[in-house]
Amino acid sequence: MVESGNLKMLKIFNCDFHVHTCLSPCAELDMHPGALVEQALNSKIDLIAVCDHNSSENVSYVIKAAFGKKIEILPGMEVTTKEEVHILAIFNFVSDLADMQRVVYNNLAGTNDENRFGIQAVVNENAEVEEINDKLLLGSVDLSLDEVISYIHKFNGIAVAAHIDRESFSVLSQLGFIDAGMNFDALEISAAMGIKEARARYNELGDYPFITSSDAHYIKDIGRAITKVLMEKPTLSELKMAFRKENGRQILE
C-alpha cells in the first residue's frame, strides 16, 4: 500500500479484464460461473471482468457465485463490430450492461450452429443449465466501431480495444490503425505479447493506457495474464482514474 499527502490509502489490485464463460461458444463448458470464480481466487485475482461474445446472460450468475468472497466482478461483454473488430465493453452496473445487451441483440442476426461453433450455455451459480442461447454470438453486430464505442460510453462504460496485437479480430488487423478519434479508453495486449514488448512495438500508441488480460476460454487460462492497478478499491470509477493517471491511480507496467 502507498500513502501520499492527502491521498487515501491505495493498493495494488490484480485484475483480469477479459474472461469468458461457457456462454461463449468457443469456451469450454467447464467455464461455468462457480468454477470460474474459484479458479480466479486460486490465481490470486482481485477483480475480473466477464466478457462473453456479444452476450451477458451469465454475468449475474458469476456475481452471485462471487458473493461474500474476496473478489470483485465487473459486468462486461466482448462486442464484435461490423468491421469484425473486438471491443471490450465493461460497466459498473448490470443495468448498464443490460442496456448495451439490448442494443447488441437488436443488431445481431443469425442462429448458432452448435455442431460448427459449440454450445452456448447459460449456467447459474449452482452449475445448473438455465437455457441454451441460440443467437449467433460469434457473429458481428450491424454497428460500426464508432457506433459501438458511442453506445458503451452512453451507458457509462469503458471501451477497450481487445488484443490489438492479434492477427485477427483486432482493430489493427482489421483497420490497420488506431487514432484518437476512435475514443478508446485503453488498449488490451494479449498474454502472448505482454505490455513491455507492446510498448516497444507500438510506440506510436504511447498516449494510450495498456492493459493485458487472459482472454480465458479455458479454466486453466484464467489469470495467465493480469494487469496490476494501483487504486483505492476495485471499482470502475477507480479504474477510470487509473487510466487517466489521476489522484495517484495508475496502471503498473
Would you mind describing this structure in some detail?
It is a single chain. This protein has helices at residues 33-42, 59-66, 94-106, 114-117, 145-154, 171-175, 195-201, 236-244; strands spanning 11-19, 47-53, 72-80, 86-90, 121-123, 129-132, 158-161, 186-189, 210-212, 227-231, 250-252. The protein has 253 residues and is α/β, with parallel strands linked by helices. The protein has one domain: Metal-dependent hydrolases (TIM Barrel, Alpha-Beta Barrel), CATH 3.20.20. The strands form two sheets. It has a nine-stranded mixed sheet. It is globular.
Q: Structural class, judged by helices and strands?
A: alpha/beta
Mean pLDDT: 96
Estimate nothing, just give the exact number of structural domains: 1
Strand order of the largest sheet: 9-8-7-4-3-2-1-10-11
Number of strands: 11
What's the CATH first level?
Answer: Alpha Beta
Low-confidence runs of at least 5 consecutive residues: none
For the biggest sheet, the summary is: 9 strands, mixed
CATH H-tier superfamily? Metal-dependent hydrolases
Query: What is the approximate shape?
Result: globular
Task: Write down the secondary-structure element order.
Answer: EHEHEEHHEEHEHEHEEHE
**What's the total helix number?**
8
CATH topology: TIM Barrel
Strand content: 15-25%
Distance between the termini: 17 Å
Would you identify the CATH architecture? Alpha-Beta Barrel
- Summarize the amount of helix as a percent range: 25-40%
How much is the radius of gyration in Å? 17 Å
